[in-house]
Design a protein that fits this description.
single chain; about 325 residues; alpha/beta; Udp-n-acetylmuramoylalanyl-d-glutamate--2,6- Diaminopimelate Ligase, Chain: A, domain 1; Rossmann fold; 6-stranded mixed β-sheet; 5-stranded antiparallel β-sheet; 11 helices; about 30% strand; elongated
Length: about 325
Amino acid sequence: MWRVANSPRITVADFFAAGRAPLQLVWEANPEAAVGRIITEVALNRPGLALAGFRRYFANRRLQVFGLAEMAYLGSLPPEERSQRLRALGRVPALVMSRGRRLPAYAREVVEHLKIPVMRTQLVTGHFMNNATVLLQNMTSPRIRVAGTMVEINGVGVLLEGEPGIGKSEIALALIERGHSLVSDDTTVLMRDSTGTIQGSAVEITRHHMEIRGLGIIHVPSLFGIASMRNERRLDLIICMRKAENVGGDIDRTGLETASRNVLGVEIPLITVPVAPGRDLTNVVEVAALNQRMKQMGRDAARELDEKLKVALARKD
């Protein structure tokens, strides 16, 4: 049973950790205050109007970005007013200084007094706000944790699911040996990103590891190289593995009856594969992924054959 988890609560410290490399973030002041500071709104704000004195609609729950305009305005004020205008903003979640600017002495005194975390980025203000908004949206996106092993096969993200011991990890291991990549083993985190795409990743503590029955835990990159792992991959296909005796006559023999599963509001193609002794399921899964890729490119073999048969039968009539 798949159960939807709540959107995760993130702190300023979480944002800094996630954006340190892509957003070029470094601490400017009060990093210790970031640990318990919750970000309650995804959007960012430039506090120009609030600094000018109009604070009726000031978005004080958002991260505040200080760019060229804000710093130039504060610099134009008499010295006694600068600290006063900054203090009037109150205890916002955090400040971010763009273009690599450092805090002036008067501003440092205010943020130290109010215990406001301050970050600095080399990015220009507009680029930082665009990239940071996407990052925050992804960090707060709804997500679920499901039982299943996820692999990437020639660019197609495939989630293998089925009862314990049915062979998901063994199939994934065989696919890795063929040059494909592992995303997660046993448990997969699925998230809907800002574009509406479902992304799959591993639970952080088990990332890069697999459990093979009879062998135990292995570290995949150490055995097969760094190319054998993907930290995250778009989910394109779900393959449900079921024992053949439990499938009965429900299996589609033609591929014309397309099934799907709703994952966080997105329909993902679903295939049920019967598991029977002697069946090479690695080949089946690999071909299923390649066939899904062809469908994404506009080629559906089952429907093309169906159309040919209809044309042939019409000619006979």
